[in-house]
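dumping this here so i dont lose it
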């Protein structure tokens, strides 16, 4: 089970596990920017002087740049915005084209048209397959972990960012995409894959041996609160002795989803603290009425547990509701607003950071497990899950008598 969970979660992806950023998924926020007209009207004289430099450069490019084709001013505009955003040095503040914004919305809603493989971008700019989802078009086409996607429909991938590559691979259900693949044996081959409707797995619940219940939450998307509530309700009907909440590989999602899930386990106390750059705070408190507020609880985390998943884990840990077992979490503790621009493109801007109820900073640090347990390559090859085994052992040895 762990091996499936390890790879099927996505943030911004074909389904994508983005090892360098948890952008789409993974910005959590719910704030609205003023309209662009108001922003333009508010530009001060000093800012106009700064823009003068931009327009001087723009005009020089228009007048002097040697090209045999007309300049694409939309591409130039998007490039300028990306450059501005990149200069901020914050990997969670990002610009998305209209096509990439559509990908972003699909991830947060939990479904999209694609080929059903998890991918990431290597440090040298290659698009690598992590794992196909069982039964997906990508798996049926023969894609395997470690394969490198060189081209999509004849377009080379090297030099693109992850969101650009994803936009090329995704598309309407039933359409075809052609990939040029370099496999782990060094062979290069071409494959045509028909896209299908891909639904991101959100939860999995089952009973383990010795009366222990298990609930995995793979993603904090729009479907997660109802699926978590339903899963807990069904599990508790069997009167389990303890519960393992598995947040490994969960890249996050919506802030309100994180709060809803945490409220299933906490009747009172703080869930998190939000703080802006001026020091102003917003305290988010638990509400009563959760489904699983009394059952003995262990939470599994790893380096893929991020953002909204860290809110849930931190709230449970700081309130003494349960312990964390596994590995240090990712450390994504910032809040983004997300605003759609006039042409359908989207700008996500970091506006705040969040802290655990005990005022621990998560951004760039992550949460340390109460009991550290690593999973080795040998464990993966042997389909062993020592973290889950440790969680069950802990629960059984600490049950009330």
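and the seq i came up w/
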């Amino acid at each position: 089970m762990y091996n499936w969970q390890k790879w099927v979660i996505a943030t911004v992806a074909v389904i994508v596990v983005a090892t360098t950023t948890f952008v789409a998924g993974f910005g959590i926020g719910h704030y609205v920017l003023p309209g662009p007209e108001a922003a333009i009207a508010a530009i001060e004289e000093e800012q106009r002087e700064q823009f003068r430099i931009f327009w001087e450069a723009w005009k020089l490019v228009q007048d002097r740049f040697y090209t045999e084709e007309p300049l694409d001013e939309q591409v130039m505009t998007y490039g300028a915005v990306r450059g501005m955003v990149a200069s901020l040095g914050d990997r969670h503040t990002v610009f998305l084209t209209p096509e990439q914004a559509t990908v972003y919305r699909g991830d947060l809603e939990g479904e999209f048209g694609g080929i059903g493989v998890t991918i990431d971008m290597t440090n040298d700019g290659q698009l690598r397959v992590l794992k196909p989802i069982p039964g997906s078009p990508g798996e049926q086409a023969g894609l395997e972990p470690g394969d490198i996607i060189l081209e999509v429909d004849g377009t080379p991938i090297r030099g693109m960012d992850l969101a650009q590559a994803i936009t090329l691979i995704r598309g309407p259900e039933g359409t075809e995409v052609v990939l040029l693949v370099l496999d782990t044996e060094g062979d290069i081959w071409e494959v045509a894959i028909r896209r299908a409707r891909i639904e991101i797995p959100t939860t999995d619940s089952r009973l383990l041996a010795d009366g222990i219940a298990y609930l995995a939450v793979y993603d904090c998307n729009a479907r997660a609160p109802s699926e978590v509530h339903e899963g807990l309700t069904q599990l508790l009907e069997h009167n389990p002795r303890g519960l393992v909440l598995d947040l490994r590989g969960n890249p996050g999602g919506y802030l309100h989803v994180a709060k809803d899930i945490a409220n299933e386990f906490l009747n009172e106390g703080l869930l998190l603290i939000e703080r802006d750059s001026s020091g102003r705070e917003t305290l988010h408190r638990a509400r009563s009425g959760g489904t699983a507020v009394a059952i003995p609880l262990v939470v599994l985390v790893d380096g893929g547990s991020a953002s909204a998943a860290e809110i849930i884990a931190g709230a449970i840990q700081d309130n003494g509701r349960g312990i964390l077992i596994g590995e240090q979490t990712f450390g994504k503790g910032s809040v983004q607003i997300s605003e759609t621009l006039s042409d359908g493109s989207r700008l996500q801007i970091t506006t705040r950071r969040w802290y655990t109820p005990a005022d621990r900073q998560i951004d760039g640090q992550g949460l340390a497990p109460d009991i550290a347990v690593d999973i080795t390559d040998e464990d993966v090859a042997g389909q062993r899950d020592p973290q889950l085994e440790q969680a069950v052992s802990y629960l059984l040895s600490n049950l009330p008598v």
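The domain at 112-199 is CATH 2.30.42.10 (Pdz3 Domain).
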